[in-house]
Design goal:
Enzyme class (chain B): translocase
CATH architecture of one domain in chain B: Up-down Bundle
CATH topology of one domain in chain B: Cytochrome Bc1 Complex, Chain C
Helix content of chain B: 55-70%
Strand order of the largest sheet of chain A: 4-5-6-7-12
Number of strands of chain A: 14
Strand order of the largest sheet of chain B: 1-4
GO molecular function (chain B): metal ion binding; oxidoreductase activity; quinol-cytochrome-c reductase activity
InterPro entries (chain B): Cyt_b/b6_N, Cytb/b6-like_sf, Di-haem_cyt_TM
CATH class of one domain in chain B: Mainly Alpha
Strand content of chain B: 5-15%
Helix content of chain A: 25-40%
Largest interface: A-B, 93 and 116 residues
CATH architecture of one domain in chain A: 3-layer Sandwich
Organism (chain B): Candidatus Planktophila lacus
Distance between the termini of chain A: 64 Å
Largest sheet of chain B: 2 strands, antiparallel
Structural class of chain A: alpha+beta
Oligomer: heterotrimer
Strand content of chain A: 15-25%
Number of helices of chain A: 7
Cofactor (chain B): heme
Distance between the termini of chain B: 69 Å
Number of helices of chain B: 19
CATH topology of one domain in chain A: Rieske Iron-sulfur Protein
Chains: A alpha+beta, B mainly alpha, C mainly alpha
Largest sheet of chain A: 5 strands, antiparallel
Order of helices and strands of chain A: HHEEHEHHEEHEHEEEEEEEE
CATH class of one domain in chain A: Mainly Beta
């Protein structure tokens, strides 16, 4: 500590400066009137709130600059509520600032540390109590207590067991089977290759039987994007090429990164962009990732045409669709 | 005695005979609170919490947290006949059929955004003034806990209406859960009651959002406030203010009026936003289905930095023995935030380890007088800001005609390069300000008036500053760096020598400061 | 007489005079030009078709062939126009995208250079278009579903537009003529893919247009829309107006009263 160097001294609390309302009764009255006006403004706000709620129909729209054509009921209800609350606050604060005493009060802090005798007494009480319980000596009690409490603590976890089924092979499979038709989403119409022009995309789902209803959990795995290019634009190996049909290629629409729908197709660059984290996939190279955080390409669905000329899946997906998980082998 | 006084007296007597309330009421009614606008930031958060409870309760009277599929037949024409979850349909009914429903929905959501913003600015105030030092370390940890819970609660809250935007957010959250090694798939199936999206998630997060987390908040906020109450609030340094006193105004009437009034202000401003600004227009998003997504999908602002980190992550995945580890999700989604928040929670202990300071502190630091701490804080904020901006990179690209690819690369580099630069600049700035303070004390304020001396020299007249100002500029303590010996008296190398060496070095860097002006220095100048 | 002059000249040196005169001058020049330049569109009869084709050829040679080639064969900087179809031509020229003013990453919509009649000239009428009742046919709710499934991922949930890669963007669909929306879906301009009539039927396309038009005129149901781009602008508002107001009141609260 450097006590040889003399520090600059604390001059102490400065002298109190009185406000106008402290000394001048007219200023005090003026402040009182100002507070009253603020409270009255709040009352007016409440009246506006009640009137709007009861009397303004919900389908009236009025024009305000910046807001545009806005719902009158909602606007005036809200402004009434805002005014009703805001001006109570302004009134109370203005009252405190101008009229309530503003002389600063000093209180002393006390040390938190308990006095030594209290501490000693606490230690003694704790020690005596522990001794009396006998946990230290009676190891059999201690150990079986630990066992029973620990097991009892497990039971809530066990009781929550039916929160969900255990993940199984279902997690890795979609509804696409050999011969499943691709149908439009929405609309459920089957698609022929000639329905698509070069440069066209189509949102598709697997066909379902009449009367059946798709669950969102199915859509979350089954959604497929169809894109038509010119066959010579593909840069694929022979196997993947055989999964296309006349320049039409199909990919899972569920992003391999974190599962958003990937359908943002740039016709000129032949890239697919996922809007969530900007993973970019090259359609000509089987949705290879060329930018962004996704680590895997989109799974490709092998397609062909059936006897009636509609596009169908050749096989199920050769890998799980969607985001990665621990049990997913490369 | 007037009639009013007599009635009040008998009520007080009734209560006191049963509880002994007069004793602690007397103590607490006269409790003193220091007055500074920056002490109101935490209050904004507190009052927003109350507003959330009130508006949220209102919403629960109409909201149906069920994912059961219904056909919409309400008054909003563009969605009539569309299949959607009951949760989404009930949120639409609140918006269009219930009078005041849309207003309350908007107040609730705006209040949540303000709640989180207030927590962040309050945290910044507490951090930069060193209010987290002993005896308030535990309160700091509670605060970091409140911040974390707030992020979760907000995410669950805006996911409840089950619209396209928030459903996309849930999809991403599920991918993070699923990516956890070993247990990921199990946890995901447990949370969602099966495969995503299932029908169990919305009802379950409803319970968490309206019961479990608010309960946790109530408990934590109560402890947080009780600690402030009991330990007494810190105060800014100034004339008459010491480590051993509190200078301020009593609870009754001044503080009650001002703080109570401020509650109405916060509520009023939130209601104003709810009235004039649209937030989360769920009817435009449409109901959630996994086959749809909107361009420019972002989470609420307080999760924007997480989104930004995930976007800029390199596409790393490892495959070992037939198992997949998604580093591209785990690092930005869990590991980096985990490190950041743990470091933030432990900071009071880290700083006291570096400085070796074990004393109580009730006087706040002016940020410039703790250059290392301030620089570290600005560095962390820069990191968060780069991440946050990257989270909106597609909106920024469309608005300013830029390329998302370029913004992404900029962010990937900036997140490593900008924080250290910010650290250095901030530290230099603090030291400059300290130098300026020293100049001000020793030489006074530059008045701008020039005077010609008899021998022809021009000098600027300096006005000495007031003793109050001089005190504020020099009252701070400048602790020397820790001197940790590597060898003891006999020359034997101490255990923990490496740890001590690191500690000594950090302590030295932490203690870098411009020596403050002293009375000695002033005397020397006067004698010139 | 002198009093009147004096009254006038009193305001001559008023400091508002200069900006006011400037505004007045700009307004009058602007109005004159827009009034004078407004072209009236006249209906085209079949008899004038051959003359129209000649005119179209003139326009093409003058304004398009330098990039697209004298025989529509294209060049290094412009695609071939053989067989593009009337819809494509109408879309590109009538929205002002062609002729290109700014050869940057993406060609933006701007004020059209050719008027409606001149647009029709370079190509034949769009077959079947006379049967399309824009904004009358189509189902609003179905249009919304179709828009969210096929369009929102590029153009955003409210049709405000969105980012593509490398500085390209999907423009806003608000304020676009119904016919041009239809043509864009059919022809797939620039980065936009083609939406075939079999995968999205003409009826469905009309539904989409109906929904877009309804969204365009939909009043603000909850207040200022903040751009309809989602949480980014909402967060900005909180950190500027929200916290700004609250901290402003806080500062006032703690200030000593006079």
């Amino acid at each position: 500590m450097s006590n040889e160097i003399e520090a600059i001294k604390d001059p102490g609390l400065p002298a109190h400066v009185h406000r106008r309302a402290d000394t001048d009764p007219k200023a005090a009255k003026k402040a009182e009137r100002q507070v009253a006006i603020l409270f009255l403004l709040s009352a007016a706000g409440t009246v506006l709130l009640i009137a709007s709620y009861l009397f303004i129909p919900q389908d009236v729209f009025i024009f305000f600059p910046i807001l545009g054509s806005t719902n009158a009921h909602q606007l005036f209800l809200g402004l009434g509520m805002a005014a009703s609350l805001f001006f109570i606050g302004m009134g109370a604060i203005h009252w405190a600032k101008t009229l309530m005493p503003d002389e600063e009060v000093i209180i002393q802090r006390h040390e938190f540390r308990s006095p030594d005798e209290d501490r000693a007494e606490f230690v003694k009480a704790a020690k005596d109590g522990a001794e009396a319980a006998g946990l230290g000596r009676r190891s059999l009690i201690r150990r079986t207590l630990g066992l029973s409490l620990g097991l009892a603590g497990l039971s809530p976890l066990i009781l929550l067991g039916d929160l969900g089924p255990l993940p199984d092979e279902e997690q890795k499979m979609t509804s696409w089977k050999k011969g499943t038709r691709l149908v439009t989403d929405p609309g459920d119409r089957p698609i022929r290759p000639e329905d698509l022009e070069v440069g066209a995309v189509a949102q598709t789902l697997p066909a379902i039987a009449a009367g059946e209803h798709r669950k969102l959990s199915d859509i979350a795995k089954d959604a497929v994007l169809l894109i038509r290019l010119r066959p010579e634009e593909f840069n694929l190996d022979a196997e993947r090429l055989s999964w296309t049909h006349e320049g039409i290629i199909a990919f899972s629409k569920i992003c391999s990164h974190m599962g958003c729908a990937v359908a943002l197709y740039e016709q000129q660059t032949k890239h697919l962009l996922c809007p969530c984290h900007q993973s970019t996939f090259d359609v000509t190279r089987a949705a290879k990732v060329i930018f962004g955080p996704s680590a895997r390409p989109l799974p490709q669905l092998a397609i062909t045409v059936d006897s009636e000329g509609y596009l169908v899946a050749q096989n199920p997906f050769n890998e799980p669709v969607g985001p990665s998980f621990w049990g997913r082998s490369a | 005695m007037t009639a009013r006084e007599r009635i009040a007296g008998s009520v007080a007597n009734y209560v006191d005979e049963r509880t002994g309330a007069a004793k602690w009421m007397k103590k607490n009614l006269t409790k003193v609170f220091p007055d500074h606008w920056s002490f109101l930031l935490g209050e904004i958060a507190l009052y927003s919490f109350v507003i959330l409870l009130l508006s949220g309760t209102y919403l629960t009277f109409w909201f149906d947290p069920s994912q059961r599929e219904v056909i919409y037949d309400g008054s909003y024409a563009p969605l009539q006949g569309i299949e959607m979850s009951a949760a989404y349909a009930s949120a639409l009914d609140i918006s269009f059929e219930v009078r005041g429903g849309l207003l309350m929905r908007q107040i609730h959501h705006w209040s949540a955004l303000i709640f989180m913003a207030a927590i962040v600015v309050h945290l910044m105030r507490v951090y930069f003034t060193g209010a987290f030092r002993k005896p308030r370390e535990f309160n700091w940890i509670i605060g970091v806990g409140l911040l974390t819970l707030g992020i979760v609660e907000g995410f669950l809250g805006y996911s409840l209406p089950d619209d396209l935007l928030s459903g996309t957010g849930i999809r991403i959250a599920e991918a993070i859960i699923q990516a956890l090694p070993v247990v990921g798939s199990y946890l995901s199936f447990f949370a969602f009651g099966g495969a995503f999206p299932g029908e169990a998630f919305i009802p379950r997060i409803y319970t968490v959002h309206v019961l479990l987390l608010p309960g946790a908040f109530l408990a934590l906020i109560t402890v947080h406030l009780m600690l402030v109450w009991y330990q007494k609030h810190t105060q800014y340094p100034g004339p008459g203010r010491t480590e051993k006193n509190v200078v301020g105004y009593p609870l009754l009437p001044v503080y009650m009026a001002k703080a109570g009034g401020f509650f109405f202000i916060v509520f009023g401003v939130t209601a104003f936003l709810g009235a004039v600004a649209s937030i989360n227009p769920i009817w435009l998003y449409g109901p959630y289905t996994p086959a749809q997504v909107s361009a420019g999908s972002q989470p609420d602002w307080y999760m924007g930095w997480l989104d930004g980190l995930v976007r800029m992550a390199p596409p790393l995945e490892s495959y070992i023995f037939g198992y997949t580890i998604s580093w591209n999700i785990l690092i930005p989604g869990l590991i980096v935030p985990g490190i950041l928040f743990t470091g933030m929670a432990l900071y009071p202990f880290i700083e006291s380890w570096i400085t070796g300071d074990k004393r109580e502190h009730h006087l706040l630091d002016r940020p410039r007088n703790a250059p290392n701490r301030t620089a570290l804080g600005v560095m962390s904020l820069t990191f968060m800001l780069v991440a946050l901006i990257n989270g909106g990179n597609d909106i920024i690209a469309v608005t300013f005609d830029l390329s998302i690819n370029q913004i992404m690369w900029f962010s990937r580099i900036a997140i490593f390069v900008l924080p250290p630069i910010a650290f250095v600049i901030t530290k230099r700035l603090c030291l400059s300000l300290q130098r300026a303070d020293r100049e001000l004390v020793l030489h006074g304020r530059e008045t701008g008036r020039l005077v010609m001396m008899p021998h022809g020299e021009f000098v600027e007249v300096h006005e000495p500053i007031s003793p109050e100002k001089a005190w504020i500029l020099t009252q701070h303590e400048q602790m020397p760096a820790l001197a940790l010996e590597e060898h003891d008296a006999s020359g034997v190398r101490r255990p923990k020598a490496l740890k001590n060496k690191l500690r000594a070095r950090m302590s030295k860097a932490h203690a870098v400061s411009i020596p403050k002006a002293t009375a000695e220095d002033l005397k020397q100048i006067e004698n010139h | 007489m002198e009093n009147n002059l004096k009254r006038l000249s009193r305001f001559r040196r008023h400091r508002a005079v200069a900006p006011l005169l400037l505004v007045l001058a700009l307004l009058s020049i602007g109005t004159t030009f827009s009034v004078a330049g407004a072209a009236t569109s006249t209906p085209i009869t079949a008899a004038e078709r051959s003359a129209l084709i000649e005119e179209g050829k003139e326009i093409f040679l003058k304004g398009c062939s330098s990039c697209h080639g004298l025989n529509l064969e294209g060049s290094a900087i412009a695609p071939a126009l053989l067989g593009v179809g009337a819809a494509s031509v109408d879309f590109q020229v009538a929205t002002g995208r062609m002729p290109v003013a700014d050869m940057s990453q993406q060609i933006a919509r701007k004020d059209p250079v050719y008027d409606e009649r001149e647009v029709e000239a370079p190509g034949p009428e769009i077959p079947g278009e006379e049967h399309l009742n824009y904004e009358r046919d189509g189902s609003l709710a179905e249009g919304g579903e179709l828009f969210r499934t096929n369009c929102a991922m590029c153009h955003n949930f409210a049709g405000q537009g969105g980012a593509l890669t490398r500085g390209k963007y999907a423009p806003t669909v608000m304020g676009v003529t119904s016919r041009h929306i239809y043509e864009a879906m059919v022809t797939g301009p620039q980065s936009m893919p083609v939406f075939s009539d079999k995968t999205i039927t003409p009826e469905e396309k009309l539904s989409i247009i109906k929904w877009i038009k309804a969204a365009e005129v939909e009043p603000q149901l909850g207040g200022a829309a903040l751009g309809r781009v989602g949480p980014v602008t909402e967060g900005l508002l909180v950190w500027t107006l929200g916290l700004g107001l609250l901290i402003g009141v806080a500062v006032w609260l703690a200030m000593k009263a006079r």
